């Protein structure tokens, strides 16, 4: 006698809400943009990776440019928030430099895909907030800290904006290098950043001159 096989009940996939689908598309796109760049990523790939049709992507973001703008903006706000927290936390300026350097390296370590996206150039990023514009925002905050220190040491506070760009650029470019190198450890990298930056700031001359200029006189 043949045994009857009880058919398994059909399981239906739980339909995502609009916000859940949007977050899924952002996560999928973030990974693709990090590995292939803006130009190398297509709407077809985003849709295929998310297992949806292309119209779904267009419905939520209007196209690749729209979803890229969202991804970049989120990363800018995340990193800017981490750096601003350290810059506004007070304390000795040397400690602020140290915490800020570590904050950037922490972000790179924890959000590698996000940092890769930020440091890449794309037509969309130019309009939505690139890494360079973020650096400008951070430099503006550093400028106020340096200006106060310059006044206390009887240095020209008008030079603070220039030195702020130098200091933030030093940290940012070192971060880009460490993104690929990942050696030495981030705490050691941060210590070297502080060593160069702080010792340089500590020894500032009131009226610096180029050696070649002095030799010609």
UniProtKB/TrEMBL annotation:
Provide one Gene Ontology biological process annotation: negative regulation of DNA-templated transcription
Q: Which residues form the HTH tetR-type domain?
A: 19-79
Q: Which InterPro entries match?
A: DesT_TetR_C, DNA-bd_HTH_TetR-type_CS, Homeodomain-like_sf, HTH-type_TetR-like_transc_reg, HTH_TetR, Tet_transcr_reg_TetR-rel_C_sf
Entries under SUPFAM superfamilies matching the protein:
Homeodomain-like, Tetracyclin repressor-like, C-terminal domain
Keywords on this record?
A: DNA-binding, Transcription, Transcription regulation
Which parts of this chain does the entry mark as a DNA-binding region?
Answer: 42-61
Pfam name, any one? TetR_N
Molecular function as annotated in GO: DNA-binding transcription factor activity; transcription cis-regulatory region binding
Protein name in UniProt: TetR family transcriptional regulator
